[in-house]
Amino acid sequence: MRRVIPSLLAVLLGVAGCATPSSVLCLMDARTDDERADAEQEACELLEDEGARLETRLAAAKVLGRLRLPSARAVESLGGALRSEHAPEALRDACAWALGEMRHERSLAALRRALRSPLSPSTGQRVLDALACHMAVITASEDSQLETVEALVYFAGNQRTSPSPIYDELSERLRTLPVNARVLQRAVDQLRGNPDFTQQAAVYLAAFELLVRLEDAADEIASAPGAWEARLEQAMQAALSAYALDFPPARMLVLWYLGKLAPRAPLAKSAARGLLGERGDAPARPGLSRRASLRHVGAWALARMQLHALGPRRALLVDLLSREREPEVLRLLGDLAREEGESDLLQRILGIDTRQRGDEKASGPEAGRARPRREGKR
Predict the structure, then answer these.
(1) Residues 6 or more apart in contact with residue 93 via CB below 8 angstroms
(2) pLDDT at 83 over 70
(3) Distance CA 163, CA 154 (A)
């Protein structure tokens, strides 16, 4: 038979409504397993009692943190108060701290769930600190890292201010290239089924984090492409799945970073295959976009890729030089054009006739000046 909580503590506690903070804190003196289990139960009841004084509930949260018993009941009591928008901020902060003390899969799951609920900057900081206490639990498996990074992405996307430095430290340790790729791919899949602003923000942030990590590893990838082949392919597929969405900000972001990465041959080849398809048959080629801004960035990115792959050069000629009409894009193409054939084609698009007429064989500074081609009625 289980032993009951010591009579002195029972007298001190009385009923929940009469408990004082000092009497609740006495629960931390429990020593045996049975006493600790009874103390945990009492603390949970006090924490869940919304009619109790705030100081009493704060003491109950502290007791649960000090007992470090990650039972389903304790974690649910703390997690419920932490996620409650009606709970005082001080209580939510205390619950986040208590969960951080447990360092268990259950408490980690509660913290990840809290990151997906509305949090003040103070409580968000506490939750991030608590997550940092779970680092050994998080890094035990890639799936756990994935779930945690997804929660971090969601949290950051719903903050009005920049997250605290602990967010960057957590990201640096958890965001490996494979984890970032999986996070982005799952965010893309969720956006397809739930096209709301929150999910769009999650896709954009996940794409940014992946591309930054890819940029950081660019030199290593270029020096040992064979060792990075599988990870690079996974990362590029995830980035291009974000690009394929009908979400212009994500498309612009992906194009910009692929252009920045293009000087490294393995990255340029992988990006070109993804953007254009194996035979230039990709349906979302940047040069065919209805948005001039995307065609503009696409032209720049493709021009940087053409040194390492054949597809970008053909895409520039077929998709852009032969049909572009937007002045800013044409101006960029003019700056990018290097060979005579490309320049001649660009000049014809601009409506400039560079062929000298037989009756205008002049000499001097006016001789080589191109004249606008006049369009008249025929």
Answers:
(1) 122, 123, 126
(2) yes
(3) 12
Q: Which residues contact 361 (CB under 8 A, 6 or more apart)?
A: 367
Cα gap 156→177, rounded to integer Å: 19
- On the CB side of 117, CA atoms within 13 Å amount to 18
Q: Cα(77)–Cα(147) distance, rounded to whole angstroms?
A: 22
Q: How far apart are CA 265 and CA 218, in angstroms?
A: 10
Question: Residue 25 belongs to what H/E stretch?
Answer: helix 21-25
320: pLDDT strictly greater than 90: no
Q: Vertex 127, ends 122 and 133: CA angle to 5°?
A: 130
Close Cβ partners of 263 (under 8 Å, ≥ 6 residues apart): 304, 307
| Structure token pair of residue 128 | 């991030």
What does each C-alpha distance from 246 to 200, 252, 278 come to in angstroms?
11, 11, 22
pLDDT for 367 beyond 60: no
Amino acid at 21: P
Beta partners for residue 352, in sequence order: 372
- Report yes or no: 75 and 113 within 8 Å, Cβ to Cβ: no
Closest CA to 294 of 243, 252, 242, 337: 252
Segments of 43-113 assigned E as strands: none
Sign of the torsion formed by the C-alpha atoms of 164, 167, 168 and 170: positive
Name the pLDDT band for 158 (thresholds 50, 70, 90).
Answer: confident
Longest Cα–Cα distance of the chain, Å, equals 116
Average pLDDT over all residues of the chain:
83
Whether residue 330 contacts residue 350, with contact meaning beta carbons closer than 8 Å, is answered with: yes
DSSP summary character for residue 290: S
DSSP state of 359: G
Per-residue confidence at 6, pLDDT binned at 50, 70, 90? very low
> What are phi and psi for residue 354, nearest 5 degrees?
-90, -5
Q: Cα–Cα distance between 83 and 64 in angstroms, integer?
A: 17
List, in order, residues 6 or more apart from 350 with CB less than 8 Å away.
330, 334
Determine the Cα–Cα distance for residues 262 and 25; give it in Å rounded to an integer: 61
pLDDT at 280: 65
What is the distance between the alpha carbons of residues 6 and 42, in angstroms, rounded to a whole number?
Answer: 12
